[in-house]
Design goal:
The complex is a heterodimer of chains A (304) and B (496).
Chain A (H helix, E strand, L loop, with lengths): L1 H19 L1 H25 L3 H6 L2 H12 L6 H15 L13 H12 L1 H4 L2 E2 L5 H8 L9 E2 L2 H11 L3 H4 L4 H19 L6 H20 L7 H6 L3 H8 L10 H21 L6 H18 L8
Antiparallel strand pairs in A: 1-2
Helix pairs in contact in A: 1-2, 1-4, 1-11, 2-4, 2-5, 2-8, 4-5, 4-6, 5-6, 6-16, 11-14, 12-14, 12-15, 15-16
Chain B lengths: L22 E3 L5 E5 L7 E3 L6 E2 L4 E5 L7 E2 L4 E10 L7 E9 L20 H10 L12 H5 L7 E5 L9 H8 L1 H15 L3 E7 L3 H10 L5 E6 L8 H9 L14 E5 H11 L7 E7 L6 E6 L4 H7 L6 E6 L6 E2 L13 E6 L14 H5 L6 H9 L3 H6 L10 H5 L6 H81 L1
Helix pairs in contact in B: 1-4, 3-5, 4-5, 4-7, 10-13
Classes of the chains: A mainly alpha (304), B alpha/beta (496).
Pfam families (chain A): NQR2_RnfD_RnfE
GO biological process, one term (chain A): transmembrane transport
InterPro entries (chain A): NqrB/RnfD, RnfD_bac
Chain lengths: 304, 496
């Protein structure tokens, strides 16, 4: 199951590789190695069976999700620290797979975002060769890649300088294509019935409705719905992050509420919050409400 | 009209399909073992060891109106009446009658009158059904005469021709080869319960059976309906939901809504009992699985599993025997256990590798397939921690243990086993609670009694004291009177 998710991720990863080069893959490799090492160590400490837990693929998935969420030129220790935090504090300390109330990858992401804001907000702009990526990530030479903020960052910072959204010329083919890649991967997961439609659908509807309301209230101030859908990690969040079964709501009705509110929260955080993209915060916030949602959305039992 | 379906359930095509469904007559077993255990009611042996019995002879009679008599399935000598292993997961033993065959298959005298059943009264028909030892042949084995009786205004009689589980073919075979008898049996049941209409439900993948029944059905009150092939549609309440869009309330019975459900094999048995005067001494059992070539056998009740399995000569690697279906069946500990009235199938499988059980990842596939709308993973959580009260809050008793959740669980957790365990635990807790309640009441009664005794005693003592006091006072006054008299006498004396 987790493996299917990893396969589905590969399309989006390949698109990201096409635009940003080897850094993307390097981060994933570093993350996966760290995840396996940390998970094995912890399982050994807890006296659990290592092989069966590693082979379920959940640690690898956590590492992959985190690795593609952070900038591909981030120094090597960033991903290692993030993945370790995600596995240890997000998962193992709660009792391992199935018992964690929070999405481990997003917990790791927020930890990195708060602790290392500089490393977490520098994104490269062009394709990196393997050599170049290695040098950058392992800090062998002085960093000489062209780096900048993401489009969502630009919007956030640019609005205070420019008069209106239109003047910022939001156009980011790379992000749109990456989002398309994750969308296709997500549809594959839906088709294979690995995930249910409830969360991605209500997630996207939440984004569409709330962004539409904002945009219609002031076209100059707020991003259009189309941009909300194509920038940042929208599709990754809708199909791969919010759908994490362990930390998401488990009833059909609950999943719809859960996904919808994540979508709304993302738009609110992107628009009014201090951070450019709000997926991690929105998911973690909604993780907290899952027991409540579940308790109030029990399905009707046959004959009652 | 309903869309002939219900929420949840899973579609599993028969995994051991054969090109042609047939019924093979199993040879007479050399020995049969008949359990005296019945659903609720009680039976008492009316033969003794060494007696010679004929096929169809009553060997254990019903003690009350709830049970049905047991008939000898073969002719021969009663070998023993003692505890024998019956088909049960733990190799449970039960009181059984064992008959050794003489190989002659001699029947009792059967009246062969062909009087139309309509000439009999309803009461006589119900009695005939009971005397023939008919119970629901679908699974639970509830006595048919009770189910069909006591119905105030029954509007619909449903005849369940859906196979209870994927892989089982015994009902399919029965419908293909005995459609005339089934329709006649249904007419008898209809006559007894006086329903307005009958619906015979057949799954869509059983086209031959469907057309066979259609051909022989000339009664305009009987309709033959096809429903989608989906597992758990054989469950009574879900079948009613699919056919009539009526939901039987939790804890309620179909009869309360004027609906009676009978199995297709039961209808055939009713025909045999009423028209052919043949008591229930055999049934059709599907022997299937990846260890054998699937077949249906008509076999005498009480024959051992081994008797049937030897007919299909499985290869030597076969290890796993399962009674009932692949979903709800139970692994049989001892294949010498006898076939009973509700044994619909035996699954013979090559040693199955049990998948490794992993942690629940809360994926929710289980609640998606649960036909009764439960949340199996929450139930599992509470059942595992033996928090029965919480599990009851999540409607544990409504679980029908269909094991759809087991089937889809990516972590291979045996959820249904957890639920049946939790149910048993819940029952035990209620029993213990009742017990301790009774004990407490008894204790309180005793305390109360002692208190009352004490009170009564003090009251008695007080009364006694009072009486004594009065007596003493009386005596005193008498004494005084005497004294006064004496004094007067003395004074008189002194004066003199």
């Amino acid at each position: 199951m987790m493996r299917q998710v990893i396969y589905a991720l590969s399309l989006g990863v390949m698109v990201a590789y096409y635009f940003f080069g080897w850094g993307v893959l390097l981060q994933i490799v570093l993350g996966v190695i760290t995840a396996i090492a940390v998970e094995s160590a912890f399982l050994a400490l807890r006296g659990r069976d290592i092989i069966s837990s590693i082979s379920d693929g959940s640690a690898i998935l956590t590492a992959t999700l985190l690795a593609i969420s952070i900038p591909s030129i981030a120094p090597w220790w960033v991903i290692i620290v993030g993945v370790s935090f995600a596995i240890i504090f997000g998962k193992q300390l709660y009792g391992g797979l199935g018992n964690n109330p929070f999405n481990p990858a997003m917990l790791g992401y927020v930890f990195l975002l708060i602790s290392y804001p500089l490393q977490m907000s520098t994104w490269q702009v062009d394709f990196l060769s393997l050599n170049h990526a290695l040098e950058t990530v392992f800090n062998l030479n002085n960093i000489d890649v062209i780096s900048g903020a993401t489009k969502l960052d630009e919007v956030k910072n640019g609005l205070s300088l420019a008069g209106s959204i239109q003047q910022l010329e939001i156009h980011s083919p790379s992000q749109a294509w990456i989002n398309a890649g994750f969308l296709l991967g997500g549809l594959y997961l839906l088709f294979r019935k690995v995930i249910f439609w409830h969360i991605p659908a209500s997630f996207l509807i939440g984004i569409v409705i709330s962004s539409m309301l904002l945009w219609m209230s002031n076209v100059d101030l707020y991003l259009s719905t189309q941009n909300h859908l194509m920038l940042g990690g929208t599709m990754l969040g809708a199909f791969f992050i919010a759908t994490d079964p362990v930390s998401a709501s488990t009833t059909s009705k609950g999943r719809i509420i859960y996904g919808f509110l994540i979508g709304v929260l993302i738009v609110i955080i992107r628009t009014f919050g201090g951070y450019p993209d709000g997926i991690a915060f929105a998911v973690l916030l909604m993780n907290m409400t899952v027991p409540l949602i579940d308790a109030y959305t029990q399905p009707k039992v046959f004959g009652q | 009209m309903a869309d002939y379906s219900f929420n949840g359930g899973i579609v599993i095509k028969n995994p051991y399909l054969v090109d042609k469904v047939e019924i093979i007559q199993a040879p007479l077993p050399t020995k049969v073992v008949l359990s005296l255990q019945q659903l609720g009611g009680q039976v008492k042996p009316c033969v003794s060891i060494g007696d010679y019995v004929l096929v169809g002879q009553v060997i254990a009679s019903a003690k009350d109106g709830f049970s049905v008599p047991i008939h000898a399935p073969i002719s021969g000598v009663v070998l023993s009446i003692d505890k024998q292993t019956i088909a049960h997961q733990s190799g449970l033993k039960s009181e059984c009658i064992t008959i050794e065959s003489d190989g002659k298959d001699k029947w009792i005298d059967r009246k062969n009158n062909h009087v139309d059943f309509l000439h009999y009264s309803t009461k006589a028909l119900i009695e005939a059904i009971q005397k023939s030892g008919i119970v629901g042949l679908g699974g639970a084995g509830f006595p048919t005469h009770i189910k069909i009786d006591k119905v105030v205004d029954c509007h619909t009689l449903i005849i369940n021709g859906t196979e209870c589980e994927p892989g089982v073919m015994c009902d399919d075979a029965l419908m293909q080869f005995h459609p005339r008898e089934i329709i006649r049996g249904v007419e008898i049941l209809l006559h007894i319960c006086g329903a307005k209409r009958v619906i015979i439900a057949i799954e869509e993948d059983k086209q031959v059976a469907y057309h066979a029944l259609l051909t022989f059905n000339h009664n305009d009150r009987i309709s033959v309906n096809q429903i989608p092939t989906k597992y758990t549609s054989g469950a009574e309440k879900l079948l009613i939901k699919a056919l009539l869009d009526v939901e039987i309330p939790s804890g309620g019975f179909a009869v309360d809504k004027g609906i009676i459900c009978q199995n297709i094999a039961t209808a055939k048995a009713v025909f045999d009992a009423v028209i052919s005067h043949r008591p229930l001494v055999s049934r059709i059992v599907t022997v299937t699985g990846d260890g054998v070539r699937p077949n249906n056998f008509e076999v005498r009740l009480g024959a051992s599993f081994e008797h049937l399995i030897s007919l299909v000569s499985p290869n030597k690697r076969v290890h796993n025997y399962r009674m009932g279906g692949m979903m709800m069946g139970i692994d049989v500990a001892d294949i010498n256990a006898p076939i009973g009235k509700t044994t619909s199938a035996i699954f013979v499988n090559n040693q199955v590798q049990k998948p490794v059980i992993q942690e629940c990842i809360r994926c929710g596939q289980c609640s998606e397939v649960c036909p009764v709308g439960l949340l199996p993973q929450q139930l599992y959580w509470h059942a595992k921690s033996e928090n029965i009260e919480k599990a009851l809050n999540y409607n544990l008793p409504d679980c029908i243990e269909c094991a759809c959740c087991d089937y889809v669980c990516p972590s291979h957790i045996p959820l249904a086993s957890y639920f049946s365990f939790a149910k048993a635990l819940g029952k035990q807790q209620t029993r213990e609670q009742d017990k301790s309640n009774i004990a407490r009441e008894r204790f309180e009664c005793r305390e109360h009694r002692l208190e009352r005794n004490k009170l009564e005693r003090t009251q008695m003592m007080a009364d006694k004291k009072k009486v004594l006091k009065e007596k003493m006072a009386k005596e005193q006054s008498q004494k005084q009177k005497v004294d006064e008299a004496m004094q007067r006498v003395k004074q008189a004396k002194d004066k003199r």
